[in-house]
Amino acid sequence: MLKAALLANALSCVIFGMIFVFTGPATAMFLGDPPVWLVRVLGMGLFLNSVHLVFVARQAEPKKAVVMYFVMGDALWVIATVTLSLCGVFVTSTAGSWATISVAIFVAACGIIQLRSALLPQASANGTAFSAR
């Protein structure tokens, strides 16, 4: 289950990273009023994160600390998304709010599965324990 959650998270990062980088102005307009440069920087960050997620997902025994790093990143993404949407900062359109909240729900689900796998190693991808290294 851990491997699937990491790969789903990576796929999401690749898709949204490409959208943010290659359609920055349109994405910014859809969301409301974020600066285009910020949308593109987030896209590049998402792409880099996807590479790291795939690298970790391919490991036989992912390190618990690395999985927790992704859990914390997912939690921060969800908190930031909800905060920006509710406060009307950058995400000011109704469609943008619905889209960002929908993505946040998906990211939260990935984070919860990753957290569960980190706390209960028997729930990891191959039923193996995490590496303590």
Domains (count)? 1
Shape: globular
Q: State the share of residues found in helices, binned by percent.
A: over 70%
Proportion of residues in extended strands = under 5%
Global Rg: 16 Å
| Overall SS class | mainly alpha
Strand elements, count: 0
Count helical runs: 5
Average pLDDT figure: 92
Unreliable stretches (pLDDT < 50, length at least 5) are none
Distance between the termini: 21 Å
SSE series:
HHHHH
Question: Can you describe what's shown?
Answer:
By secondary structure, the protein is mainly alpha-helical. The protein is built from five helices and no strands. The longest helix is centred in the last third of the chain and has 26 residues, at 94-119. The model has no long low-confidence stretch (mean pLDDT 92).
Keywords:
133 residues, mainly alpha
Topology:
Blueprint: H1 2-22, H2 24-31, H3 36-57, H4 64-87, H5 94-119
Helix pairs in contact: 1-3, 1-5, 2-3, 4-5
Brief write-up:
This protein is mainly α.
